[in-house]
Each structure stands twice: as structure tokens, then as C-alpha cells.
Amino acid sequence: MKKFKDWHWIVKISGPIFYSLFAVSFIAYFVFFRGDSRDLISLTWGCISLGIVIFGYTLMLIARFQLKDKFFIRAKDAEYITTGLYKRFRHPIYISSTFSGLGILIFFLAFNIEELFKNMDIYNEWMLKTVAIAFLVGYTLLQYTRAEKEEKVLRRKYKTSYKEYAKRTIF
Prior knowledge:
The chain is mostly helical. It contains 5 helices and no strands. It is 75% helix and 0% strand. Helix 2 runs antiparallel to helix 3 and helix 3 packs antiparallel against helix 5. It is elongated and about 55 Å long.
């Protein structure tokens, strides 16, 4: 049982790895195989969105790896990390996942993904793009709310040391 406890944090990052690979594969498929290769603007925006998504998910996985067994879905008064990405950012997972969401939004705005919805009577390009923007805004607000709750718990437990840490770091 001790061996599993030492490695259980790997199980915690397997979900984000799966979702990261799915999102990157989905976007790459449309950018390189389904997009019109003669359309340089779509190809350029597709590559930009793919780069942003890969960058964001890579940072998120690094941050999750650095947390190891200190990652929790809900805010807990566990010890906070001040090394690695956490030396500069208090919430690198929230920042990087929102950054990846921005890359996905750019993809939805740059590409006409009508093929995905062509058999549905409800397809409306502007409605889909509006929903994508609303989703990113809602997701960003959710991440901000989670960060605020987390900080409240850590400030209550660590008082002065966490305030000093917060002064030295960005969100």
C-alpha cells in the first residue's frame, strides 16, 4: 500500500493528460487535415491556437506534477508550495487551464467547424461562437472563485507567511 501512496499523484494527473491529448489532437486534426490548406489565415490561427493549447496544458501538467500529493479539488489547508512555477504564480493550474481555454476559443473563432454539426438542424455559427465565448468567461470566473476560496483558507492558516508569499507572486 505504501508504494501506491508514493505514486498516487500520477493517477491524479492522468485525467488532465488525457484531456490535454484529446484537445490537442482534435485541434491538430482540424488544422492540418480538415482545414483548407490554401487558407493561410485559418492555418495561421489554427497553429496559434494549437500552440497556446499545448503551452497551457504543458504548464498545467508541470504545475500538477510539482504539487504531487498536495493537489485537491476543494480548497484545503494543506501546505502551500513556493518552488517551481509556484515561485512566480500562486495558481499556475488555474492560469494555465484558462490559457488553454483561450487557445480552444481562438480555434472555435478561427475555424468554420460546420462539419461537426452539419447533421444537426440547430447549427448556427454565431450561436456556437457566442456559446464558446460565454463558456470561457464562465470558466475563467469559476477558476477565479476557486482561487479566492483557496487563498482564504491559506490566509487563515498561514497568516503572515502567506501574505508575504502573495506579495511576491502573481495571481
